[in-house]
Amino acid sequence: MSTNTTPTTVLGLGAMGSALAAALIDAGHPTTVWNRSPARARPLVARGATAAGSADSAVSASPLIVACLFDHASVHEVLGPAAGSLRGRTLVNLTTTTPNQARELAAWSASHGIDYLDGGIMAVPEMIGGPGSAILYSGSQTAFDAHRALLDLWGKSTYFGSDAGMASLYDLAMLAGMYAMFAGFLHGAAMVGSEGVSATEFAARATPFLAAMTGAFAGFAATIDAKDYAGEGQQSLEFSDLTKLVAASTEQGVSAEVLQPVHQMIRRQIAAGHGKEGFARIFEELRSTR
C-alpha cells in the first residue's frame, strides 16, 4: 500500500493527537479518529476525518494505528479490549512512557501479533509538521521503514533501533536537561525579581548567555567518554562550589531547592577527594545510583 494514501487511525485527540491527525488529513491520508470525549473529533471531522464510535471500530478502520493517549495505563485501557482487532496491524505509540513501559507494550503487542513502533515527540503541538519538529522512534524497523514517508509528515524521524525503550529513553533524557534548565532560569528570575527586576528583562539577558553555555556540552561529553576528569582546561569541582549561589539566594529570600541537589553532589565529590577534577565528574555519581 502506498504510504501516500495509507489509511490511518489516531486514538487520542488532545492537543498533540489532534495536531498529528490534522497533518495526516492535510496530506491526503484517509484518517479515522477516536477520543473518549467525542466532541474533540468535531474539528477534525470538519477537516475531513472520519469519527469512530468506539476504539475497536477505529482500530478496525485502518492498517496503521497511532496512539497518543494520556499515559501507559491509558494505552492498555483503550487498546486492551481491541487487541483482537489490532492483530496483523501496525501500532505507533506516541504516548509518553518510560523506557520499560515502552518495552512492556512492545512485548504485549508481539503476543497479540501487532507490529509495534514506539515514539517520543520532541515538539509542542504547534510545531508538528513544521521546522524544528522531531520524533524519535524505536521498535519495529519494518514498521519504521514501511511508514517513513508518513512519519516524516510530523517532523524529522530518527530511528534508534529495535529496543522499543530507546526512543523513550532519549526523549526523557533530553527533557531532563530541558526541565533542569527551565528551573534554573526561573530560579535566576526569582533572584533578580527580589529587587524588582522583571522576568522579561532577565530573560533578555539570560537567553544569549544560556545559549552560549550549551557549547560546553561537547567538551563535557568528550571528557565523560574518555573519563579524563583531571585533564587540562576543566573547571574544577572546587571552583564550581555553589556555596555563594546558595547564600545569595537565601539572602534574597529565594528558595535554594533548585540549587541544593547540584551543590550537594559537588560537596560530596570534593569530600571524596575529587575537588581538583572537573565539574563533569558528577556524571559518575549520577550514574552510580542505578
Compose a concise summary of this entry.
The protein has 290 residues and is of the alpha/beta class. Helix content is 49%, strand content 12%.
H/I helix tally:
14
Report the portion of residues in β strands.
Answer: 5-15%
- The outline comes out as elongated
Mean pLDDT: 96
Lateral strand order in the biggest sheet: 3-2-1-4-5-6-7-8
End-to-end separation in angstroms reads 45 Å
Low-confidence stretches: none
Major β-sheet profile: 8 strands, mixed
General description of the model:
The chain is of the alpha/beta class and 290 residues long. The chain contains 14 helices and eight strands. The protein has an eight-stranded mixed sheet with strand order 3-2-1-4-5-6-7-8, with helices on both faces. Helix 1 (15-26) links the parallel strand 1 and strand 2. Helix 9 (166-193) packs across helix 10 (199-213). The longest helix is centred in the middle third of the chain and has 28 residues, at 166-193.
